[in-house]
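Handoff note, outgoing to incoming analyst
You'll be picking up this chain. Sequence as last confirmed:
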Amino acid sequence: MSRLSLTSPYCLFLLSEIADIHLSSDDKPDMLHTHTYTLIAVTQGNGSAIVDGQRRRLLLGSCFMIPPHTILVTAAESGNKLRMYRLAFQVIPVESDAVPLGNTEQGLPLYSELSTQPFGQLKAMLRELHRHQNATDELTRFKQQIRLQEILYELYRQNDTQDLQIQSKEAVRRSIDLLHQEGGAQTSVNLLARQANIGVRQYTYLFKQLTGQSPLDYITELKINHAKRLLLISNDSLQQVAHYTGFKDVYYFSRRFKQIVGQSPKQYVSNTRREIRIVAFYYANVLISIGMLPIAANLTWWGGSYFLREQEEKIEDIGSTLSLEAISKLMPDLIIMNDSNLDDYASLSKIAPTVMIPYDSRRNIYEDTRLIGELVNKPHAANELQSRFEQLALEARRRLSSIVSLQPMAAIVRFEREGSRFSIFGDNYGRSGWPIYHGLQFRIPESIQEQLMDSGIQILQDIPLEKLPTYTENADFLFIIDEEEGTKYIAENPIWINLPAVKQGRVYVLDFERFSYFDPLSIEGQLELLTQMLLGEHK
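Most recent structure output, in case you need it:
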């Protein structure tokens, strides 16, 4: 588990800022790219946080330490107001041989929930820190730094001995993700507790704290939702559906189904439309790619691809803030979500069968498509799309034979903060990485391969401009993602001008709408546009 050491003699901890954040369920989620270590502590209400794609539930008293270069998205739960302190501080080495932080055996756990008992004490300390944040006199500002040290001391004191409790909660979170992946068919509370390596009573307590339901009720609801989906999209017999969803026999399955749903399985099928109405909080672009048009989707966050405009015009945008009433009025037959909406799973399940596919940065787009295809009875769609892409890529490489035969290297870069910082991307994070590295088979610079892909990550952010040559000096081609800045702030900078790819005129600026999205249809379109660019046919 990565940790922040507080005992290194080579570092100083300096207060950057503290904010008192207020969010309602009507507000857009609050998005932050952290540049320093950041502590969040919830003082009111419920909500959720997405930390680099991984979801965390936020309750009164929840407290997390987030490292720099992390995407943090927080939102209030439906019908709730969320209030929290967000404290940012710098960790500054004072000697050149300072030991790097974040991977020590002792210290504050990063990403995991921290123990804060009594929470009122931490809340009071944060309130005092916030109250004096605008102080201008030297003595009070010095006292502010002392308050920061006291807060870090209290957190360290409690959490240096709370490692097992933190690990237990994380183990329960992982077991919930696995439940959704496996459908809950062949499991029990005892088995889940054993897998999490904790007792049944503790597992049940932590499970209910995270989901609001007991494990048994949650598993039963999951199995019934799985059964509803199979009844709607497959031709399986009742016996097969009962078996697949983990019920001991078809009679018990039918009885439990009627108790929970209010009608028998056969009545449910006859009363439900065969043309499936899908609401997709996530994966709408994948559904479109396999020919399944959802009736509604979160297009506010995930829509906008140039290549899907025609299809998205026919889809209702439900936005990023969940409205159970609005979803209910759509009368969906199936709801698809990722773990960013886990808090709402139980409520959504009462509207329609709800399937949660946890976000996993290790899956590629065709693995995502395979999961979705199996869900909607299109098991061969992923293979067909992948084969089509490979044929298109083969033809693209033929057209670019004079270039690709040299096995060129390429780097994908995005400039930020008026050119003072940049990000680099791998092959599995959108931004045309898949068509560039897999389609055209450009090679990845060794420094990017080592620091990203070999480390299991796909994006490295907030890198100082001075380090640009480290990642790009061996690149024959540079692809610049224009999400805000393009190259306008660095065009005259010597660091940029002296890069080999810049000197040779091998720089291509890629706009967001065409080149940043990551789904089977968009990457096919990106492959063709990239080919045209390299041939000089597209501007």
